[in-house]
């Protein structure tokens, strides 16, 4: 399995373990809400567009709520199976590119929504793909930063995500850095360095795609 498939299957295993009513880090969403979102994202591109196009948000929400009415086990099966057979995202390269971060972040959204969690050891394929994503997509992740932003991962990678002086440096394992840049600052185990006022601003920036 590629990196995206590994994270997808791990999330589905966790869904089975915790049930449909478990909390997540996605505001107001239970695990069933999250599973319905993933099914819509995989199988209803018309509705998934509502995630990025405000005018379609209401339509996307209606489709998601309709999907949520399905039995829990069937939702999990649909998430596990992924996009339809004719979807180009079933191609391994596109799957890795578009889904590894999505499923990594949402797996952690479930894991870290309850007390007592600890960072997990990521599969090598997942860590490699996340590092590639940081290298190629840092500018997109950091576009909302209020100042220059430098990313340093524990694997030795340093990326200037946003040019500017003075800058704030975010340091940590690659998964933790990605969680921070996806708006999970409170749960991401990273260290920040730079001018105190800018560090505080970065901590409170509404990051996310």
Automatic annotation (TrEMBL):
A Pfam family this chain is assigned to: MDMPI_N
Residues of the Mycothiol-dependent maleylpyruvate isomerase metal-binding domain: 10-46
Any one GO molecular-function label of the UniProt entry: metal ion binding
Listed name of the protein: Unannotated protein
Organism: freshwater metagenome
